[in-house]
Amino acid sequence: MHEVTIHTDGACSGNPGPGGWGAVLASGTLRKEISGGEASTTNNRMELVAAIQALAALREVAEVDLYTDSVYLRSGITEWIVAWKANGWRRRSGKRWLPVKNEDLWRKLDGLTARHRVRFHWTEGHAGNPDNERADALARAAIPRP
Hints:
Elements: E1 2-12, E2 17-27, E3 30-41, H1 43-56, E4 62-68, H2 71-86, E5 90-93, E6 96-99, H3 103-115, E7 117-122, H4 130-141
Helix pairs in contact: 1-3
């Protein structure tokens, strides 16, 4: 099983608004950069899409270290998702049960993480990590302009 390091980021111009996502994938001496954008989205959706697209780009099952500066992404996939799945993709809000936001994307990410061995890491954004900065630049460049 080969090892892959991925750095992802999402960005939005307004929240909601036009958004972009970017990812840097590295394995040995190989590097790949991917990005994309949507006309109307949220920053959280772009963070999720970045991770989904990066994992979907892997051609073989891999051992992955995925770095994100999104607490939402890291906490959602490593902590919250267990309860969401157990509660039928619903979350408690006070005394009420509400649908999980971005359920469609969480389900996709859950499926991809089941295919690979993925360790999610949080990294501080805009703190000088070259691959995190590059993922951010890719995401910002991919935001559709009117």
